[in-house]
Amino acid sequence: MRLQLISELDEFVSFVESLDNVKDEIWFSPLGEGKWRIHDVITHIMKWDDYFNNVTFPNLLKSKSPELREHPDYLGFNEQSIIYGEGRNKKEIIEETIKNRQIMINNLMKLEDNQFSVVYPGDRGFTIGTYLTEFFISHESYHMKQIQDFLMTKQTM
């Protein structure tokens, strides 16, 4: 399970690397009416990786009774993530995203297989596996498809 999850998380690195070829005018265009730009979506995921690396993961290692739960203000966090990305160019966002994801993967590689199936206290009784699947893998799969669909429309124009 651990290696499968890590492999799925690593797929995002390849996806982000592929966005390096996207023209800036498309990178900074909204994905639709009232939607974020590719820039915003990638920044948003990058900041969640950063949060996992600097808050969630250390808490799992240090706390005697660590919890896995949703961020208490995920909408505010998302908004702050978009603000963080303002003024940063595509290259900066791509590099930081890849760096944060690689740190996440390296941290997860340090854990034993059985640590991925331990049920942690919290509202929903997450394991590391279910937490990563719901808040990272499924979430970024949605956004990757959203971006791919958007890029397909731009290629047919």
Short overview:
This protein has 157 residues and is mostly helical. It is built from six helices and no strands.
Give the helices and strands, then pairings.
Elements: H1 2-18, H2 24-27, H3 38-62, H4 74-85, H5 90-109, H6 128-155
Helix pairs in contact: 1-5, 1-6, 3-4, 3-5, 3-6
Distance between the first and last residues' Cα: 42 Å
Could you estimate the helical fraction of the residues in percent? 55-70%
Q: Looking at the structure, what is the overall shape?
A: globular
What class do helices, strands and sheet pairing give?
A: mainly alpha
Mean pLDDT: 93
- Uncertain stretches of 5 or more adjacent residues: none
Order of helices and strands: HHHHHH
| Annotation, overall tally of beta strands | 0
- Portion in strands: under 5%
The major beta sheet can be summarized as: none
Rg on CA atoms, Å: 16 Å
Q: Helix segment count?
A: 6
Could you name the key traits of this structure?
about 160 residues; mainly alpha; about 70% helix; DinB-like; DinB/YfiT-like
Describe this structure in words.
- Residues 16-147 form the DinB-like domain.
- It comes from Paenibacillus alvei.
- The chain has 157 residues and is mainly α.
- The chain is built from six helices and no strands.
- It has helices at 2-18, 24-27, 38-62, 74-85, 90-109, 128-155.
- Helix 3 (38-62) runs parallel beside helix 5 (90-109).
- It is globular.
- The termini are far apart.
